Amino acid sequence: MSDHDRPFRVLGVQQIAIGGTDKSALRALWVDLFGIPVQSSYRNERENVDEDILSLNGIEIDLMQPIDAAKAPKVHEPQLNHIGLWVDNLVTAVSWLTDKGVRFTPGGIRKGAAGHDVCFVHPKSNDEFGRSGEGVLIELVQAPADVIAKLQ
Questions:
Q1: pTM here?
Q2: How far from 30 is each of 35, 52, 60, CA to CA, in Å?
Q3: Does residue 107 lie within any of the structural domains?
Q4: Is the residue at 113 inside a domain?
Q5: Band (4; pLDDT cuts 50, 70, 90)
Q6: DSSP helix/strand/coil, 149
Q7: What is the DSSP string of the chain?
Q8: Distance CA 54, CA 114 (A)
Q9: What's the CA gap between 140 and 89, in Å, rounded?
């Protein structure tokens, strides 16, 4: 398949999300020892996540712990929770990928922790949708205009 057939472009890595049962242990490594600064924090009961958002040369590193480890989604399983990719047209990407049989997680396109529109490719396929992230949760993130201009 050529780039001319695909109505959107993946521009680059937007984030790497790492989960654990104790966010303070993650902070001790990533913030205290590696020196990567915390930009903001995010908490969402529905998504069962309490996270710190770090930034390293424009790439987010999200340190996440579940609000309730017994409930889903389990943001700490697997510990490398997901990878986020900048896309130039999220709505078009989701529509086109859905037509190609890609399974997305429930919730559709919505605002993510950093305020960008996001949608997640499910890590597992099913009978209805035969394509997936092949074991990896993939977050597609609508790139803002300045990121699109920089990465095209």
A1: 0.82
A2: 6, 11, 12
A3: yes
A4: yes
A5: confident
A6: helix
A7: --TTT-SS-EEEEEEEEEE-S-HHHHHIIIIIIT-PPEEEEEEETTTTEEEEEEEETTEEEEEEE-SSTTSSS-TTSSSEEEEEEEES-HHHHHHHHHHTTB-B-TT-SEE-TTSSEEEEE-SS--SS--B--TT-EEEEEEPPHHHHHHH-
A8: 11
A9: 10
Note whether residue 108 is domain-resident: yes
Task: List, for residues 67-79, the tens digit of each pLDDT value.
Answer: 999 999 999 988 8
pLDDT score for 1 = 60
Count up the domains in the chain and report the number. Answer: 1
Q: In the beta sheet, which residues pair with residue 125?
A: none
Structure tokens at 129: 């949708």
**28 contact partners, CB below 8 Å, separation of at least 6:** none
Please identify which residue in the block is written with the tokens 């920089």. Answer: 150
Q: Residue 85: its pLDDT value, please?
A: 94
Q: 3-state class of 93 per DSSP?
A: helix
Distance between CA atoms of residues 115 and 117, nearest Å: 7
Asked if 114 and 60 touch (Cβ cutoff 8 Å), the reply is yes
At residue 29, the pLDDT reads: 87
SS3 92: helix
